[in-house]
Write a structure and sequence with these properties.
The protein folds into two domains: about 25-340, Metallo-dependent phosphatases (Purple Acid Phosphatase, chain A, domain 2), CATH 3.60.21; about 350-550, 5'-Nucleotidase, C-terminal domain (5'-nucleotidase,  domain 2). Helix content is about 25%, strand content about 25%. It contains 15 helices and 28 strands. The strands form seven sheets. It has a six-stranded mixed β-sheet with strand order 6-5-4-1-18-19. A six-stranded mixed β-sheet has the order 9-10-12-15-17-16, with helices on one face. Helix 2 runs parallel beside helix 4 and helix 4 packs antiparallel against helix 10 (about 335-350). It is globular and about 80 Å long.
Length: about 550
């Protein structure tokens, strides 16, 4: 009886669709969107922080996320909508927790395919392991180095990646198609997908080699005539770039950042922009157009309802609602089975105990850009490379973007696990110890302000200290006299053995001064160094954040 009723309902919906168009009634389309999932198959410890309903001046932490609950929410939000599509705006993979990263993010691709994801733009993290590995994510097959590690052969994504602005320089063609057109009740809707033009500056130089990341607005605008020639009037942009709002997760009283200028440059034919990258949640109107973003790590699903005019085939209206993936949602059985299958393989490694931490180690920086976890990571890297046969390092520096999550003290007071350590250092970069002069070290520190609006403050190991003034001009922000190692001033002409990771050694994040390093010795992986440091120094208390001084007026 249930099947028969459903079949009758389906027939009614099918027969109703042409009637709506014939009568000139708007066609409703529900777009479900996510962004910056980063392989968080299990609920992230960070949850989502929202305004406290009982006191708007405060915030409260809501447990949220996880593929099991997200799949259920996606099904609920699809509901009985005759027209719906599930899309994403990049960084679905990369910088992932151990469960996904151990298998090169194959579990995440499978999970999102199971959920019915249809289209996704590439993000910068899609390129973490290079173009060829991203193509494998789309098309399937075993990893070229590690082979088939999972419980079954990897067949690739059921959804389609789009990369309108990412061009292979050798061929002049985009890595993936620039757009995809879907038709709803006879009305075509184009989805253009692209990543930020600055992608080459925030991925490894090796991964960016041979790729050209072009201007976002120019790329989209150049496609508009082509789409119009195909009869498309409704255009949705999935862009891996975003902004920083004020207000709650469904508000936007003010927003700044790159997305604002990009949207204002877009052709008026673009109706809706689904943004990402900044790990923020907002529902905005910019330049008369709806612009959304759904936080990070799968804590939100954005439900967007648009109305399409059967006569003009264009968007009449658009509204959005960011819906929290609460832990009270039922768990989707297919997702549970998938996670359990991979967990059986990963658990023996993931659950290895490291040391006890007496308090949570936060990655949040103070006014000087220094974080507790950043200090610990740098100390761990120095400890791993200080011995003469390991590099003879006297100083270690690491990039803040490589530290992804807090290391949270366990409620039972037990040791942190390898999986938790890995989550904070998920890129698995190898450590490289090089010889730099004191002048080279200062030059690298000056490059922290490559983008003055978003300085990238390197985290430094114990014994090294310096001061900066962000108001000074380029090349003069670091007080050379304040640079000290073990209390002794850094000599610009002297040589020092400095440990960095492979990403920085290649000039990642525009720290090109590190490429001057000589006598390189490559060592262990950064996550292994942190794991060993916690084990050797258990119980570990958070160090004081007193290595970097901000002399802002």
């Amino acid at each position: 009886m249930t099947f028969r009723c459903c079949a009758i309902l389906a027939c009614l919906l099918i027969s109703f669709a042409p009637a709506r168009a014939e009568r000139g009634l708007p066609v409703d389309l529900r777009i479900l969107a996510i962004n910056d999932f980063h392989g968080n198959l299990k609920p992230p410890a960070s949850g989502i922080r929202i305004s406290d309903p009982t006191d708007p001046t405060k915030t409260t932490l809501v447990p949220a996320g996880g593929a099991e609950q997200m799949a259920s929410l996606v099904k609920q939000l699809r509901g009985n909508h005759a027209n719906s599509i599930f899309v994403a705006a990049g960084d679905l993979i990369g910088a992932s927790p151990f469960l996904s990263a151990m298998f090169h993010d194959e579990p995440t691709i499978e999970s999102l395919s199971l959920m019915g994801l249809a289209i996704a733009s590439v993000g910068n993290h899609e390129f973490d392991e290079g173009k060829d590995e991203l193509l494998r994510m789309q098309n399937g097959g075993c990893h070229p180095k590690d082979g088939c590690q999972g419980p079954h052969p990897f067949r690739g994504a059921d959804f389609h990646y789009l990369a309108a602005s990412t061009v292979v320089t050798e061929t002049g063609k985009t890595v993936f198609p620039p757009y995809e057109i879907r038709t709803f009740e006879g009305i075509p809707v184009a989805f253009i997908g692209l990543t930020l033009k600055g992608t080459s500056e925030i991925i490894s130089p090796a991964a960016a080699a041979g790729l050209d990341f072009r201007d976002e607005a120019e790329t989209v605008n150049a496609l508009v005539p082509e789409l119009k020639a195909k009869g498309v009037e409704a255009i949705v942009v999935l862009i891996h770039e975003g902004g920083w709002p004020s207000g709650g997760y469904n508000e936007c009283p003010g927003i700044s950042g790159p997305i604002v200028a990009i949207v204002k440059k877009l052709d008026r034919a673009v109706d809706l922009v689904i943004s990402s990258h900044t790990h923020q949640a907002y529902v905005c109107e910019i330049d008369g157009r709806l612009v959304t973003s759904g936080d990070k790590f799968g804590t939100l699903v954005t439900a967007i309802d648009i109305k399409l005019d059967p006569a003009t085939r264009d968007v009449i209206s658009a509204k959005a609602d960011n819906v929290i993936v609460r832990n009270t949602l039922p768990k989707d059985a297919d997702q549970t089975a998938l996670i359990e299958t991979y967990d059986k393989v990963a658990s023996p490694i993931a659950n290895r105990p490291a040391g006890i931490i007496t308090e949570s180690l936060s990655r949040l920086p103070n006014a000087s850009g220094e974080s507790v976890l950043g200090d610990v990571v740098a100390d761990a890297q120095l400890a791993a490379t200080a011995a003469a046969d390991k590099g003879g390092a006297v100083l270690a520096m690491t990039n803040p973007g490589g530290i992804r999550t807090d290391l949270v003290r366990r409620a039972d007071g037990g040791p942190a696990t390898y999986a938790e350590v890995f989550a904070s250092q998920p890129f698995r970069n190898q450590l490289v110890t090089v010889t730099l002069t004191g002048a080279d070290i200062k030059a690298a520190l000056e490059q922290q302000w490559h983008d003055p609006k978003r300085p990238r403050i390197l985290q430094v190991s114990r014994g090294f200290s310096y001061a900066f003034d962000p108001a000074k001009p380029d090349g003069e922000r670091i007080d050379a006299a304040s640079m000290r190692l073990g209390g002794t001033p850094i000599d610009p002409a002297a040589s020092y053995r400095v440990t960095i990771n492979t990403y920085l050694a290649l000039g990642g994040d525009n720290f090109t001064a590190f490429k001057r390093g000589r006598e390189a010795l490559t060592g262990r992986y950064d996550d292994e160094a942190l794991f060993a440091y916690l084990k050797d120094n258990s119980p570990l208390a958070p160090p004081a954040r007193d290595r970097i001084s901000n002399r802002a007026p």
